[in-house]
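hi! just following up on the protien thing from before. the input was this:
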Amino acid sequence: MSRNIRFIQAAISVVESTRISPYSCKYSKKTFTQHQLLVLILFKDYRNQHYREFVEDVGDMERIQENLDLSIVPHFTTLQKFLRRIKSLYLRLIFKKTVDLFYTIDDVIPITAIDSSGFISGYCSHYFSERTGKIRKHFLKTSISVDTDEGVITGYLVSNGRVHDTRHAEKLLRQCHKIRKSDCYVMDKGYDSEDIHRLIRDDLHANSVIPIRCWNNEIISGKYRQEMARQFNTIIYPRRQIVENKFSVLKRKFSGDLKARIFLIQMKEIAGKMIVCNIHRHLQFFILNVFYRAVFWFFW
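and the predicted 3d structure came back as:
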């Protein structure tokens, strides 16, 4: 079975488990279901293609059309309009379902790493670019939380413009802890704040490992920051590199460029990349399990 077919089958399973209605309203033409269009958008991100190129390729993939039960291939503008119309809540539900693929109900993540990076919105006026000789690029700040054992994205947060790391962390910590609890959170110096420590220790009842930012002869304030200065866990902290590796995989494999120009649609694009990345990770585990099972039966 090809990797494209495996991805389509996994995406169909995840989308159908959310119980999203097949059609957006009772007056729909019912040419395509919302499930079919959602899976196609995720498949486009998986293949890292533009809309026109992607639709042309799907037209040549008979097995993909059979798995999706497509009588005709949708026009590329149909996918664009659907992404503009679909609610962000549905993408959040699908993302949560991808996280649930890796855990049972009572599972607790040992260590979660949090970091932020930027996705590029590369559109700009070609007229002014030629006159000035510069290309102005806009970045959408994105923070993610990653299970350092499984390499799974457990939460994400997007903002339009520059936002301090601590402001992102407060919302992201509550979000990812609600989806899947963790025993420890690891972050870099940019998140050093007594409020963040207090949120993790007192409200979420977990451990925090964040190096302190201090200059020469500066007095370290705060109970938990002083504790970090006295006894910093140098064994757990290197696990933070896994979240940086996850950003690297996201941008190299599924692109760090955004096609949309409107912020709300850009957020949906980023949500799609998170969903695709988790499904891709799930398929990697599936292939490994099949391989080792085959090796076991061969030697048995």
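The first strand starts at residue 112 and ends at 121.
The domain at 106-267 is CATH 3.30.420.10 (Nucleotidyltransferase; domain 5).
cheers
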